[in-house]
Amino acid sequence: MKRYFFTVLALSLLHTSTSAQKPNVKKVFKLAAEQTEYMLKQVDEAKHHSGNPALVSPRTTENGKLRLVASKDWTSGFFPGVLWFLYEYNHQQEWMKEAKKFSAPIEKEKLNGTTHDMGFKVYCSIGTGYRILKDAHYKEVILESAKKLATRFNPKTGVILSWDHSRDKWVNPVIIDNMMNLELLFEATKLGGDSTYYRIAVSHANTTMKNHFRPDYSSYHVIDYDPQTGVVLKKNTHQGYSHESAWSRGQGWALYGYTMCYRFTKDPVYLRQAENIAAFILNHPNMPKDLVPYWDFNAPNIPNEPRDVSAAAVIASALYELSEYSDQKKVYLEKANLMMNSMANKYTAPVGTNGGFILIGSTGSKPSNSEVDVPLSYADYYYMEALHRVNQLK
Ligand code: GLY
């Protein structure tokens, strides 16, 4: 009996330590490199078949085939970013060559002021390249991109306008995803650019903190502002289950956004906000045991709902950074590790499948039945970033 008790205890301790063990960085990077080599061949083939030179980056698969997008698509910067992470990890010149090649077509987006997605496009590609190489030209691209993004800031609302589209529904829509663009603005000021970029980022973060969050620190997706007065007109969703639900990736953007704001400003208000958002996510009763969220925390048919691995990747990456600032370090590391191990063990595609994407099981937009339970380039990007962060942990 005694021996049985100790065996059970040992096994349960083993289980706890295994599930929250640091991810096997070497193994995952090796697999990611093999899979990305396969992806490069797939991309060549898909480009050749499309006959459209404007299609530059892989976004997902459709009917078993790669779907490529043009640089103006919000996801165009993620695959170049994955290539940069591979180069940073193994320092093989071939990866740098590919990273530069895939980043180059994104550069022209620095002049595209018709969307807020500048950060996703330019910062995840060229910004990641700059962090690694400190290339003077990349720095210029970051500064020019910040200048263009800043044109979307409205001092009357205090926020950066997200979308020019959907004017039938919203006058001045601002989505929680927009928090992710602030990194480009903060960094541009740090690199010697105008201090206005920093002030715009702070204004956007503060206004969003006031208007986008519910008392439980879950976030709305879309807030519509009166562009003349800054008055909030609507609190809605676009990709979530309902206006009052918590769209999972949106919660991830919020967590990542405020953690990053703390990195640049050291304002404790942002740290507290990030900790509160983390508590909402991690303690949610609908969070599955493997910590890979359903696409919306309030999706009506949980547990029979698609997961969103991209949300898990964003959240894991954010938690690693937050663990460096918060006194909840141990909890955040344990949860992030568990998420990473779930992705590695349950949501990783065998090499030579999945169009070359590393992860399966993401959901782009369930309400429009678009990209449900598929690979997505941004899931891979934040997964690679999270892995890089594991390597950087103090
Ligand atoms: N930024 C768009 C999305 O998260 O789907």
From TrEMBL:
Transmembrane regions: none
Q: Where does substrate bind?
A: 117, 177, 237, 249, 253, 365, 368
Residues forming the catalytic site: 117, 177
Signal peptide range equals 1-20
Q: Sorted alphabetically, which SUPFAM superfamilies does this protein's record hold?
A: Six-hairpin glycosidases
Signal listed as a keyword: yes
- Key words of the record: Hydrolase, Signal
Single GO term (MF) = chondroitin hydrolase activity
Single GO biological process annotation from the record: polysaccharide catabolic process
Give the family, as the similarity comment puts it: Belongs to the glycosyl hydrolase 88 family.
Q: Could you identify this protein by its name?
A: Rhamnogalacturonyl hydrolase YesR
Question: Which organism is this protein's natural source?
Answer: Pedobacter cryoconitis
